[in-house]
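Sequence design from tokenized structure. All designs in this work follow the same two-part layout: the structure record, then the generated sequence. An example of the structure record is given first.
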């Protein structure tokens, strides 16, 4: 029997998820809820009256829908609130990133998940892209030997009209909506947590964003790997590059191809990418989502711990919060300080 999903939020990304669920052999949309009637009307116009039940009130939707799990695709500042409502009703949850706006909120969500005995996953689809899986595999197998440093650079031409309007109200639109993905990728690629973050954020003079559209950071991972990070929403073009340096050589990827160069050699040689489930190799918006739905299915049906479970993802969110503090206070911030600070405030 297909996993019945209650979808909370059917905006741009929520509309994508309707399609992903339809394409997946083991999932079906049981109902959609959105406070905007026009968003629900768009679902009805596209899929017909009998597609699924439609609600404008989340509590009513949760009460009346026979669902096996909830999928949250609402604005970021509502993720924690909506996850708590779904968990309190006994529903497993997968939420779009971030897990919550703050580590303190995220801990409340995780506490509720433990209390009701239900899993919560975070839709970190970047982890499942073929290039990232390939790099992660090579690093884990020791293809580079000991690793010293990496550079992570992401340029985006994303003025505010290319993202939902609510993103422009964030103090750090780049860091909170894009950087959180990148920090999670860094943790996944090296299979270790960050220890320290030193960051600075700013808005280029030509940017139309209200908040900070650019972020640079120095990240020290556990074990002494140092990552130089830079990303912006205000570039004239899209471009990505990750380079990892190790004792046996280095790796480079643009998220489409992966190349390896042995120490002492001049040329990078292409690396065969790892195989991923159907759909995961697709371009945005679908890439990586098959594995996410597989993980949700397995977490619900067999209790299998998901790679992007909330208990793991909170460490990525802590990197974002550490970067906020670092920017505001002008100092290097320990991840353990952020995790401890949130506990004291809770």
């Amino acid at each position: 029997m297909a996993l019945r999903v209650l979808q909370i939020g059917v905006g741009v990304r929520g509309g994508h998820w309707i399609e992903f669920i339809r394409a997946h052999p083991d999932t079906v949309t049981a109902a959609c809820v959105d406070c905007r009637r026009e968003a629900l009307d768009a679902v009805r116009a596209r899929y017909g009256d009998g597609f699924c039940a439609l609600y404008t009130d989340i509590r009513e939707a949760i009460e009346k829908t026979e669902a096996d799990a909830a999928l949250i695709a609402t604005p970021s500042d509502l993720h924690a609130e909506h996850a708590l409502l779904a968990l309190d009703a006994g529903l497993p949850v997968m939420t779009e990133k971030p897990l919550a706006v703050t580590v303190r909120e995220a801990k409340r969500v995780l506490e509720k998940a433990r209390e009701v005995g239900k899993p919560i996953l975070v839709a970190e689809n970047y982890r499942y892209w073929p290039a990232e899986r390939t790099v992660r595999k090579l690093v884990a197998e020791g293809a580079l030997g000991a690793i010293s440093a990496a550079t992570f650079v992401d340029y985006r031409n994303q003025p505010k009209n290319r993202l939902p309007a609510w993103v422009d109200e964030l103090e750090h639109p780049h860091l909170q909506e894009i950087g959180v993905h990148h920090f999670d990728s860094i943790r996944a690629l090296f299979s270790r947590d960050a220890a320290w973050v030193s960051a600075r954020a700013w808005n280029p003079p030509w940017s139309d964003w209200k908040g900070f559209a650019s972020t640079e950071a120095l990240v020290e991972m556990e074990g002494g790997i140092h990552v130089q990070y830079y990303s912006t929403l205000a570039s004239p073009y899209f471009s990505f590059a990750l380079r990892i340096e190790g004792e046996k050589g280095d790796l480079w990827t643009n998220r489409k191809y992966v190349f390896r160069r042995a120490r002492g050699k001049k040329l990078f040689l292409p690396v065969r990418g790892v195989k991923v489930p159907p759909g995961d190799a697709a371009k945005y918006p679908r890439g990586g989502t098959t594995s996410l739905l597989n993980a949700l299915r397995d977490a619900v049906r067999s209790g299998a711990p998901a790679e992007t479970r909330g208990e793991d993802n909170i460490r990525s969110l802590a990197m974002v919060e550490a970067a906020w503090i670092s920017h505001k206070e002008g100092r290097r911030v320990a991840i353990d300080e952020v995790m401890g600070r949130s506990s004291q405030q809770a």
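The two ends are 40 Å apart (CA to CA). We note this feature because it recurs in several other targets discussed in the main text.
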